[in-house]
Amino acid sequence: MSRKHYRAFAQVLRQAREFYPEDEDGISYVARELAGICAEDNRRFRRQQFHDAATPEPPA
Predict the structure, then answer these.
(1) What count of Cα atoms within 13 Å lies in the side-chain half-sphere of residue 53?
(2) Kindly report the CA angle at 21 between 51 and 56, in degrees rounded to 5?
(3) What is the band of 20 on the pLDDT scale with cuts at 50, 70, 90?
(4) What is the pTM of this model?
(5) Which whole-number Å values give the CA distances from 1 to 17, 24, 26, 41, 54, in the listed order?
(6) In whole angstroms, what is the distance from residue 59 CA to residue 46 CA?
(7) Contacts 24+ apart (CB under 8 A), 30-37
(8) What is the C-alpha to C-alpha distance for residues 2 and 4, in angstroms, rounded to an integer?
(9) What is the largest CA-CA distance in the chain?
(10) pLDDT of 41 over the 90 cut
C-alpha cells in the first residue's frame, strides 16, 4: 500500500467520526485494527500520525 491509501483510510475514519459520534468505540476499534495492518505493511508507518489524521479537528 502507499501513503495515498493510508490517507484515504484516515479520511474515511475522520468522516465516520463526524457523522457517527455516538459510535466512537467502534470507530476507534476499526482505526486501531487498520493502523496495525498498515504497520505490518510498512515498517515506517507512524500510528500517531495516522491517528491524528483520522481525528476531526475540534470546532473553532
Answers:
(1) 19
(2) 40
(3) very high
(4) 0.88
(5) 23, 26, 24, 7, 17
(6) 25
(7) 34/9
(8) 5
(9) 36
(10) yes
What single-letter amino acid sits at 12?
V
Q: How confident is the model at residue 7 (pLDDT cuts 50, 70, 90)?
A: very high
pLDDT of residue 58: 76
Question: Using the 8-state DSSP alphabet, how is residue 55 labeled?
Answer: S
Tell me, what DSSP letter sits at residue 56?
P
Say what the pLDDT of residue 57 is: 82
Distance CA 5, CA 41 (A): 11
Taking 80 as the threshold, does the pLDDT of residue 59 lie above it?
Answer: no
